Amino acid sequence: MRIERLDLVAFGNFTDVALDLSSPGLQVVYGPNEAGKTTARAAVSNLLYDFDLRTTYAFVHPMSKLQIGARLRSEEATTLEVVRYKRNKDPLVEAGSNRPVSAPTWAGLLQGVSRSDFETMFTLGWDELVRGTDELLARGGVLGETLFAAGLGLRELGTVLDRLDAEATTLFSPRPSAKTVNAALKAHGEARKHATELSVRPSHYADVVKDHEKAAALQVRLVSQRRDAERDHERLVTLRGVLPTLRDRTRKIEERAGLLDQDPLPPASWAERVRQALEARGELTRERSTVADQFHSAEERLSTITVDEALLVMAERVDLLAEGIAGYEDGRSDRGGLDEGRRDAERDALGIIGALTGGSPGLAALEEARTVLAGKVAFAPARDEWTAKEVALERAREGVRGFGDEIAEIKEALALLPEGDDPGVLRTSVDAALRQGDLDGTLSSARSALGSVQSARLEVAGRLGLAEDEITDAVARPSPSTEEVEEILGTLDDAAMSVRAAKERARGNARREGELQGELEALALEVELPSEDDLSRRRQVRDETWSLVKESWLEHQAVTGEGTAFTDERALASSYERAGTEADNAVDRLWQEADRTARRKGLMAELKRVRAEHTEALEESRHSTEGASAAYATWRSGWPTQRLPDSPGALRQWAANLERLRSLQGEWTTAHLAHREAFRSLRAHRGRLAELLANFDVEITAGTDLEPVLTQAQALLAEMEQRRTERVEKEKRLRTIERGLPKKRAAFDDAAAAEQAAAAGLTTLLGAYGAGLASPRDAGGVLARLDQLERLLDIRDSRLQRIGGIDQRSDAFEGELRELLTSAPDIAPEPAAEAARELVRRVKTARDSAVARSTQEANQASAQAALDDADAKLTGLRDELVLLAGEGGIEDIEKLGTTADRALRFAALGEEIDGCDTLLTGQGGGRSIVELETDGLGRDLAELNAAIEASNESRTNLSEQEKEATETERDLARQLEAMDGSDSAASEAARAQNEFARAVEAAERYTRVVLARFIADEAIRRYSEAHQDPLLERASRYLQLLTEGGYREIGVGEDPKKGPRLSAIYSSGEERSVPQLSDGTRDQLYFALRLAAIEEALGRNGPMPVVLDDVLVNFDDNRARAALRCLATLAESGQVLLFTHHRHVLSLAEEVLAPEQYTVHELATAASRQTG
Amino acid sequence: MDELRVLHAADLHVDSPMRGLVAYDGAPVDEIRAATRTAMRALVSEAIDRQVHLLLLAGDLYDGGWRDFNTGLFVVSQLAELHESGIPVVIVYGNHDAESQLTRRLRLPPNTTVLSSTKPETHIFSDLGVAVHGQSYATRAIEADLSLAYPKADPGLVNIGMLHTCFDGSLGHDPYAPCSLAGLRSKGYDYWALGHVHDHRVVCEDPMVVFPGNLQGRHIRETGPKGATLVNFVDHEPSIEQLTFDIVRWERCRVDVTEARSLDECLARCREELLALSGTGSMTYAVRVELAGPSSLNGRLRATTEQITNEVRALSLSLDGSDVWIEKVVVATTPLTGRPVLEADGVAGEIRQVLADLKANVSMLASDDGSRIPSLAALRSQLRAASSADLDDVLDDAEIALALDDAAELLATLLGGEEIENAH
Question: What ipTM score was computed for the predicted complex, to two decimals?
Fold first, then answer.
């Protein structure tokens, strides 16, 4: 089939453009960019195979108006003019008659070539050529794959195969690994194992129950035994505890019995009174003896004491003397040191006087010195005044010198600070830039905002299928409002709801139909029916039996007989009953069948009704659907300038997008203006500042931002202003100093005069103290010596005064001592302090003796009174004892004590025995004293200890066994408690199933992928086997033509590892593998293979249009010429359309092809078509 | 007694896991894991609420191979609740129970009677006026008709027969303890409480012969409502009411995508059908979605099954009403008439020829002996080794044959130059 004329009636930006393709040879369609070359190419496949569902070529003409026409010539040379519309009904019609082109007619023209085959096998673009060549290199020219891909026009076979392999690799590996299937199987296995671990085996549960019962029984038994042992142990321990008490009690009872054998035994109260009287007598006797001893002792001491009464008389004067002894001795001791100090002061003072006067003066000079010192009052102020004047003079000198130095410094600094450099202009420019704010940021924000709006705008435009240059026009075109969109959608929703309701009704009817069918089938399942004969037979049996019954019962005849089912009346009755029942059952079943028949009829009628309703509902659904489609199509046609979506479902989104686009268009315009304004402002300020900085020789920072330049300008400005301020301040200071300098000089002169006057006065005063003291600077030394001399004279006077006082107090002390010693002539008067101390000691002795004598005299009188009192009490007690003896019937009062003791012992034993009884009752553990005596008195303590020891051991053993049994029981109880019917194992098993399902799901995916790969391999293998030789032969021919004989043929090399590989063989016989070829040669190799495949397909399918799009773009002129020759050759066996936008291809064609071998068609640009 | 209420259940398979469900984010995992237990709790609760006089469990309380005694203890706890409410229970063990070790060790509460496995046993409830006849399985494979030895009906009592049976073999389950309607009818019982068939079936209404179905579906072959049968006897005449107790309902959801022009529209159709299925209830559904009908998207759908599956799972999470767990999405569409993708020339034709040859000899692709695709044979072997015995159909030849179609479509779509990701 050939296309003799292509009518681009309304397609893309073509309107009523026709291409006459009827001439033989290569059809070269030239068009610059925007001419619609791609559109024309697409028109060919759209013509042959219908418009694309969502065609992008309805941007000028609305979808419903798209139209392509053609005149076609079949292989049998018949022609057919057709027009294709973008519509569902009769999209392809014969031109003129508008009759639909029949499917067989069209299929015959297309010669069995499907759309995908046409687009892969009969079309080739430069990009596909590039991709094919790239893959040829990437796969290394594998023979089978390359032939398969090139032969069938597959662009990415290698990529697809790699993709399948990669996906299979991620899913499964036969060896354990981390692939998806393997991992899921592993997780499944682990979950199953975990479920098993969590499971409780039934046998284990039974074992635990059994063990627990045993452990509980053992525990009960051990508790009982342990308690028995504890009771026995407690009894023995109690017995051991009370055994001493038991024995003590027995002994006391025996002793008390012994006391009863003696007479008399007065009562305990008498004995108590006797005991008290005897004790009082004994006590009184002991007290009297002690007092008598005290009386005699006082008497002996008095006889030894003597007192010196004479010393006692002057005791008070001696006390006063004693107080002065220490002062006397200290004064004597200090006097020598004071005298030595006096002599040192006198010596030093004389030395100073000598130094001042230049001689060796005697003590008399000391008194004269006091006169000189009086003149020091005037000398010190004179020296102070001179010192002050001298300081003032120095200050005045410094003032004059300082001003001079500062004037020099300021003049030097001013020389270094140049005048000129007015910062005013720079300041104005900087301030102007600063007032604009952050211009860099503003520009950046504006740029960012513009970019964002632009992205959003293009994105939304893309969603609407609009190119950027179409946006302005699109938003300006009339379009349905949101309300109008909602209105049509509401209409469509209503229709959809009707469809759903109808379908729901249909489903309900279908369900009901199924139920009715089920009921009918169930009715058919009923049991077999009895026949009329069977019923008659059974009734006959019943009647015959009834006759026999009547004979037997009413006529009393014997009814037994051979061959019957009965032998006596009882059996006969049963037989009758059975026969009757069977007959009744048969009747019942027949009635049931009648019921079923009626039921079946009812069900059939309902089934018919339900089916009719079902059909009606489906029809209604279809009608609603078609109505909705028609309503939408009508509505859409009302907006011809807008590309409304095909599907109502996308309409709301489309309207929202258009609305959004309008909004974004406004935002974009605003953002664009803002960006332009910011840019202009920034550029102006930066330029001005850069110019000013250049005037100051500042090198400008590179870039377009304002901020760095502004910073540089601000830095320069700050520097200039600082210099200017500094100069003004220095000049002002210079003027001030120069004005004050004469005053400073006058003050210096005054100070010098005052200093000289003070020095003259001081020098005069110095002359009074010694020769050679002519300088006022000597005044300081003279004054220091005079101060030292004054202090030495004061020391000397003080020492003389203290020595005189000491001598006076020593004389008074010694006089008083001598007078007191006249009463103690045996004491030596010298030394005085020792004599005074001896006198004091003797006075003290006399005083002590007098006190001792008074004490002893008082003691003696007191003892005498106590003796008299004791004697009177003893007489009374003897009388009381005599009376008691009489009461007790005792003759000798000296035996009163023995009898009283016995009576008291008897009473005490009674109390002690009661105490034992109380103790035994308390400690006996509830046992009576008699029981304790019976159990314990005969036992040995050692034997008892041994029994306790044995009992203790038994108790401990039992306790440990019990503890062990309790732990065992608790452990088993816990185990039982843990077996609580939980579903943890079941949950884990469920999880295992989830994992297994995951593995199966991934395995299914793996299966599909690996099968797809396997099918691909098989297809490649088979294709290669079937097509290798003819394809390579044709391709070799084309390669030879394309390379102008440079390459002879395409060969097949054997890669020992990777199998057969394609190669190219030079005319010289040299063979090169695909990777060794140059890029251009690889292009040609792949091009040759594709041309060979196209030629083969044309041979197989008959002539078809071959569409080539700029395939020569990468060829140099020589190879392009060769390629054009190839295409002209190919055009001899089929129609070849070569689209190109390179005009030089036309020149090359003109060079190498005869005029009859090609025809050129030029497409004007869309703009020129519109203006033209 | 004027009215006797008997609840008849069978095939509880307690703790038997749900099969074929891949857990994914948002899937109602917890609801599904404990489904069989929850269903049994609901059964017991309903028996107590309705104050039934008797509960009959007609076999297969447990899964045969399951050995966790906790399952038995759970069942006992439920029977004990019935005991506390004074409801007696009669059990016949089925083939799975006979295999299970749980049945041999459990100590059942006093209200529970397990009928003998050595011969038919009759248990009479004098106070209810009921005689229950039945026989448990002694071994897993009982091939004899146990009902033959059942006693005749006891006159004056309501007679109920219990039997775990495949019935006459026509219902498609393991052929254990077959019986015939005539044989059952010959016993003169008022009601036959059967078990073993997992669908609810009323085999006969006179006498009433009923399979209640299992209590909870466990895989895609057990679809629809599941539960137990409540039998009301008035003067020995039974009437039945089917109650549902399933927590998770298995359903096949057929989605006709004939009208769909894009994958989005396919998904919209899925959403509609799933909404219609799940409604506004609180049931959890395990759903196999089957895309069907002649479709222009046939090849694309088959090539992007995983993507479709993920999309459908994602949309199932956004449905109002019941929880929906998508078990699987099966693409069962056919090419549009007149545009068979694989019946063209070119690459599609090459693929079609290979496909035809491979489908004629599928068994060689993954056979254990000399597979043409060894990794596929290894995959099948590993899956079968990991699965339990009743899942031998995993990756069988029939599945591989179906996968071949999908694989061919996948390859054709990929070589057609369209990226799968951009397919819609």
Answer: 0.90
